[in-house]
Structure formats: C-alpha cells, structure tokens
C-alpha cells in the first residue's frame, strides 16, 4: 500500500515535487534545479517507444496520514481529475532561453511537434511553442513567433500538431469547356516547416488539347504542365482550417502545328515544339484532420506568349485544384 501510494504521488505531483525538511517541516521547491537544456538533450536522446525516465523525480519524505485508504483514494481522485483535463490547457513551469517547460507530458497524450499558444493573465498572445522532448508529466518545447517575454505561470493552449510530411493525390481543371479545357490528375508532396512555411512538389499531367480554325488554315496543339515546385505560407497554422498563399516555378511542354492552304493550290504546315519555365502563384485553404489534409486552391500560371502564325498564343491558365493527402 505504501509503494502504490508513493507511485501515485509521483505521477500526480511530479511537476511540483517537494522535499520536507525534518527540522522545520517546510517544503523546499525543487523545480529550479537542473539545467533545462541538459534535460532537453537527455530526453531527445531517449529512443521512441521506450520508457522515459521522469527526470525530475527526487527523493521525497512524505508524512502520510494514519488513514491510508482515505489517503490513497484522495490521490487517485486527484490523479483522475488531472488526466481528464488532457492536453488542451496547461501552464508554463519554467523558461530558459528559447526552451520552455510545460506541465503536460506523455500521460496527457502529448506528441512531438504539438503546438501550443502562450497567453498572459489577461489572455493576450505571447508566443507559440512546439514540443520536442517529452517526459511522463512534463514536456520541453521550443518557442517561436514570440511577441512578449514568456514567464512561469503563463497559460498555454493546444493549437494542433505540425505535420512534417504530406503525400497525396491532386486533381485540377480550368473550368472552361470545349477544346480549351485544362485538366489532369497527379501526385503532390509537401514538407512543412515551422512558422507555417512549406515546400510543395507536383508531378501532374495537367494538359490542354487546343485547336483554332481560320479561313483556309488552323492551329492545333497540346500544352502540358508535368512538374511544379514552390513554397507556401500558411496562416493560423496548425489549425483545422489554414488559408495559404504561395509561388513557385513550373515546367511547360508545348507542341503546336500550323496548317494552311493557299489559293488556288498552295498548302503547307509548320510546327513548334518548345520547353519553357513559367512562374505560378497559388492561393487556397487547407482543412486538417488527424491524419488527412484537404486542400482547395487556385493556381495561376504566367506562361509565355508564342508568336506563331496566323495568331500569337498566350499560355496563362488559372487551374482550380483539389487534393487530399496523408500527413504524418
């Protein structure tokens, strides 16, 4: 019974563990002991899926009440209340440079790259935190986008988890019917950085079959956008809905044929095949779930003006895209 009571005490009150001085009976707060950067490094070196040592565990002298059953029931009740609160809200325990310790850990189902927002007592924004090292009942996070100094006791609220990689399918079309329609299916890969920045790569078959007829002559051709690479900036990230803007470059493959007939009998044909690079701009919104992300976006490609007979051709489509990705 004594061992079980001590175990519950460590889990419940580990973030604020006290040692009682025999002579005075006064509690001595041990929170400030130890260097936060060393503890951060030690936790980062722990292997995933291994038992993580509660690094702040120290020898504690506890004067237990005579009624052991009532004492144990009280501890279990308090532990249950703490776990029910989950990881949605917490407090800052201590700060050292850009490292911040919060009172949420693996027992609260904290995960790496969980993002918290720090608020002061007046509910004003201070900074964001991203969890990088996890113990049983506390975690160490790195602060960024800081506007005010973070202090112990500041409130933290869970915002979401930054997904490192996303891989999925994308479909696009330009919304114009007939022979002028761009459409195609492809793959999209994204790498998400801190601060809401990301890199995306597209391998697609966005294609347009094009033809135009004149008196006695006509043009026909094929425009393809097989590759695109760019950067984007998410706002309110991570969150279940995150608008974004971005830009990048794309690869354009053009094959054009000009066929003409003269009067009374002359006729001929000219062809143009070229590869160009063209910039693009994108705006859209991401809807995030636990493992899947849905993106709705519009991509404007600023392509070249091809001076061909009998009429120049501009390649500047706006392609509306939808993609669904698996994120981890």
What report would you give on this structure?
With 328 residues, the protein is mainly beta. The protein folds into two domains: 2-161, Beta Barrel (Elongation Factor Tu (Ef-tu), domain 3); 165-327, Porin (Beta Barrel), CATH 2.40.160. Helix content is 12%, strand content 52%. The protein contains three helices and 18 strands. The chain has helices spanning 2-13, 36-44, 68-84; strands at 18-20, 27-29, 89-96, 99-102, 114-119, 125-134, 139-144, 155-161, 165-173, 182-192, 197-214, 217-234, 241-261, 267-288, 292-301, 305-306, 313-314, 318-327. The strands form four sheets. The chain has an eight-stranded antiparallel beta barrel with strand order 9-10-11-12-13-14-15-18. A six-stranded antiparallel barrel has the order 3-4-7-6-5-8. Strand 14 (267-288) and strand 15 (292-301) form a beta hairpin. Helix 1 runs parallel beside helix 3. The protein is elongated and about 105 Å long. The two termini are 43 Å apart. 26% of the residues are buried.
Which characteristics define this entry?
single chain, 328 residues, mainly beta, Elongation Factor Tu (Ef-tu), domain 3, Porin, 2 domains, 8-stranded antiparallel β-barrel, 6-stranded antiparallel β-barrel, elongated
Furnish the topology, listing elements before pairings.
Layout: H1 2-13, E1 18-20, E2 27-29, H2 36-44, H3 68-84, E3 89-96, E4 99-102, E5 114-119, E6 125-134, E7 139-144, E8 155-161, E9 165-173, E10 182-192, E11 197-214, E12 217-234, E13 241-261, E14 267-288, E15 292-301, E16 305-306, E17 313-314, E18 318-327
Antiparallel strand pairs: 1-2, 3-4, 3-8, 4-7, 5-6, 5-8, 6-7, 9-10, 9-18, 10-11, 11-12, 12-13, 13-14, 14-15, 15-18, 16-17
Helix pairs in contact: 1-3
């Amino acid at each position: 019974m004594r061992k079980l009571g001590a175990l519950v005490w460590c889990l419940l009150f580990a973030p604020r563990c006290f040692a009682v001085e025999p002579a005075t009976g006064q509690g001595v707060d041990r929170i400030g002991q130890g260097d936060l950067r060393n503890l951060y490094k030690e936790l980062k070196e722990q292997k995933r899926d291994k038992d993580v040592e509660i690094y702040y565990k120290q020898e504690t002298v506890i004067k237990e009440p005579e009624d052991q059953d009532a004492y144990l029931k009280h501890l279990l009740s308090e532990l249950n209340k703490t776990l029910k609160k989950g990881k949605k809200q917490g407090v800052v325990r201590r700060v050292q440079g850009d490292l911040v310790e919060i009172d949420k850990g693996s027992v609260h189902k904290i995960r790496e790259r969980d993002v918290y927002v720090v608020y002061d007592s007046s509910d004003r924004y201070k900074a964001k935190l991203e969890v990088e090292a996890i113990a049983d009942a506390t975690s160490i996070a790195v602060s960024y986008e800081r506007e005010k100094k973070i202090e112990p006791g500041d409130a933290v609220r869970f915002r979401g988890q930054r997904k490192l990689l996303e891989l999925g399918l994308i479909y696009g079309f330009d919304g114009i019917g007939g022979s002028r329609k761009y459409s195609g299916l492809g793959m999209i890969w994204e790498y998400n950085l801190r601060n809401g920045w990301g890199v995306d790569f597209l391998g697609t078959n966005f294609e347009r079959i094009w033809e135009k007829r004149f008196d006695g002559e006509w043009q026909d051709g094929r425009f393809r956008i097989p590759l695109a690479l760019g950067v984007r900036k998410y706002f309110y990230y991570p969150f279940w809905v995150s608008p974004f803007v971005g830009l990048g470059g794309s690869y354009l493959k053009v094959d054009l044929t000009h066929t003409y007939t003269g009067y009374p009998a002359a006729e001929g044909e000219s062809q143009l095949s070229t590869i160009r690079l063209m910039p693009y701009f994108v705006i859209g919104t991401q809807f995030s779930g636990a493992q899947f992300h849905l993106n709705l976006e519009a991509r404007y490609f600023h392509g070249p003006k091809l001076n061909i007979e009998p009429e120049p051709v501009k390649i500047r489509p706006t392609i509306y895209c939808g993609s669904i990705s698996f994120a981890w």
